[in-house]
Amino acid sequence: MAAAVRVRKSKGAGDTTREKLALAALAEFNSHGFDGTDTNKIARRAGFAPQTFYRWFADKTEVFLFVYRRWEEEEGALIAELRKKRTPAEDMAEAIVAHHRSTLKFRRSLRQLSVENDEVRTARAQSRRRQIARILEWNPKSASTPDVLAPILLQSERLCDALAEGEFKDMGVGEDAARRELATLLKRLR
Predict the structure, then answer these.
(1) Hey, CA dihedral for 141, 144, 150, 156, is it positive or negative?
(2) What is the maximum span of the chain, computed from C-alpha positions, in angstroms?
(3) Read out DSSP for 92-141?
C-alpha cells in the first residue's frame, strides 16, 4: 500500500520554508515536468541549500503529492467561489479550464505518474473521492451516488485537460462542442 503524504506540523519559519519549497516545486514541475525536475533544483529555486529540501520532504514524489493536494484545494476553492456567486456553467467551465491551463506540465506529469507510480495513482483516486464527497455535500438532496458521479467527474476532468492542452485544435476540430459538453457535465454535477 502506498504511503500517505507526510504533513509536518511546525510553527514559525519552518512553515515558510515548506511553503517556499512547495511553490518552487510547483514552478519546477510546471516548467520541466516531474522527470525534468530534481530536488536540488527545487531547493535552489526556493532559495535554500539542497539539503534543506530533505528536512521537509522525503523525496520528489512526496513534494509532488503535496503540491497536487494543494492544486486540488485551489481548484476546490475556485469552484466553491464560483458556485457561491451562482456563476453560469459555461463560465465555470472556462475558469476550470484556465486553472488546468495554468499548470499544463504539472498536469501532464500527474497523468503520466498516475499510470506509472502506484503512490500517485492512489493519491489521485483519493483526490477524486474527495471531489465526489464535496459534490454530494453541495447537493445533499440529490439522488446521485458516487457511482453516478464518478463517470461525470472523469469526463469533466478529461475535457478540461484536453481543452487546456489544445487537443481539439490539434485534431483540426473546433472546441465549441467540447465547451458545451463540459458545461453540461458541470450542470449535472451541481
Answers:
(1) negative
(2) 53
(3) HHHHHHHHHHTTHHHHHHHHHHHHH-HHHHHHHHHHHHHHHHHHHHH-TT
Buried b (16+ CB within 10 A) or exposed e, 87-109: bebeebbbebbebbeebebbbbb
Q: Is residue 9 very low, low, confident or very high in pLDDT (cuts 50, 70, 90)?
A: very low
Amino acid, single-letter form, for residue 176: D
With 0.70 as the threshold, say if the pTM is over it. Answer: yes
Output the nine-digit C-alpha cell for 55: 528536512
- What are the residue boundaries of the structural domains of the chain, listed by start? 61-189
Phi and psi based region of residue 7 (left: phi greater than 0; alpha: psi -120 to 50; beta: remaining): beta
Question: CA–CA separation, 68 vs 84, rounded Å?
Answer: 24
Summarize pLDDT for 24-56 with one digit per residue, the tens.
Answer: 999 999 999 999 999 999 999 999 999 999 999
Cell triple for residue 58? 522525503
**Site of grid cell 497536487:** 68
Which residue matches cell numbers 474527495? 130
pLDDT of residue 14: 54
Which amino acid, one-letter code, is at 186? L
